[in-house]
Amino acid sequence: MERTGTDDRATTEGGAPTDDGVTPVGRAMDVFSAADEERGRGVRRMKLTATGLLVFVAAVYVLAEWASHRGAGPWAGYVAAAAEAGMVGALADWFAVTALFRHPLGLPIPHTAIIPTKKDQLGVSLGEFVGENFLSRDVVRQRLRAVGIGSRLGAWLAEPEHADRVTEELATALRGALTVLRDSDVQAVVGEAITRRADAQEIAPGMGKMLEKIVADGGHRRAVDLVVARAHDWLVLHADSVMDAVEGGAPGWTPRFVDKRIGERVYKELLRFCAEMRDMPSHPARGALDRFLRDFASDLQSDTETRARVERLKGEVLGRGEVQDLIASAWTAVRSMIVSAAEDERSELRMRVRAALLSLGSRMATEPKVQGKVDRWVEGAAVHVVSTYRKEITLLITDTVASWDAEHTTRKIEAHIGRDLQFIRINGTVVGSLAGLLIYTVAKGLGA
């Protein structure tokens, strides 16, 4: 992002800051920053120096020619030849440097003003150059392999402060993602996914296998013990309710004392049955229950009617609003729990993530096998990106250069490299002078 003057906000071409302070895409080259202005002043100083040197050798040439005509001696010819060649070298290099950025003396000489007139072609060439020399599979693999990302990243992650930093960044990203997500959208997706997965897979055979294993291992006996014990305790606490229920169901023509005796008898039998079933692991009712569960487990796996009834029941349960509300409330609870854990620096989640990062960093730093895996993964990912988006990357360069304003681009490039180019003019003057002196000397020697 380019800046104008000391203002911290980017400006548009007309100088007005954008709403977000960011220079519009494709207009960065249209803005001259304070640093660019300073570079421009340096270019102008070097131009004056190079031009001053040209004026100096021109003056030397005039004086040497004047002295030669006044009979100053052979030395005047040597000086004049050197100064003359220096002028030619200076003018030739001035023309070459100027032709890069503009038409010399404003004359539309062919093959001048190269940067403003050939800007788009330069952008295409730059994109092709980058694509061929930087975005090829072999170059990317070679450079990444030379870097040794796995070992370097491992050594970096193995430092506690770096692991803390990564953990904090991950927690921030997680909180941001959960904040952006709308609960209604997530609940709809989760509910639809659960329903689709449940509809696509029959659950009866799996339930049958699980029940069969539970019964075979005796895992259901604790549940039976609990149910029987609770039933016995409930009968003890609600004796009157049980007897009232039995008496209330008796015919109206029976005497009340008979109904009462029957109610007491039924209650005692129920209480005795529960007590015996609770205290006798080998009670016949337990055996009957075991046989029932084994038969039901077998039916769940092999009986077509039983499996169909289970599937219908599954569909009815999943379709109920209460189940969907349960899914929604579960997501809300999970999200709240994750956000709280991500915010708490001492939470189990963050501590485990930090420990995992430290462990991973240590392994990556010391185990060549892990380093190789990381290097191959990074290389594969980079090569995939390069192979898939190479054209888009080079087009980004080409289109960006094409969007630049020619005049501002020329000024900006000249500000960055113009100072060094002025040394070409200075060197041309000096080298031309030396070459002219050498040629004149050789010519004089041969003529002598």
From TrEMBL:
It comes from the Bacteria. Residues 1-24 are annotated as: Disordered. The keyword Transmembrane applies. The keyword Transmembrane helix applies. The chain crosses the membrane at residues 48-69, 75-101. Keywords: Membrane, Transmembrane, Transmembrane helix. Residues 1-11 have a biased composition (Basic and acidic residues). PANTHER family: INNER MEMBRANE PROTEIN (PTHR38442:SF1), INNER MEMBRANE PROTEIN-RELATED (PTHR38442). This is DUF445 domain-containing protein.
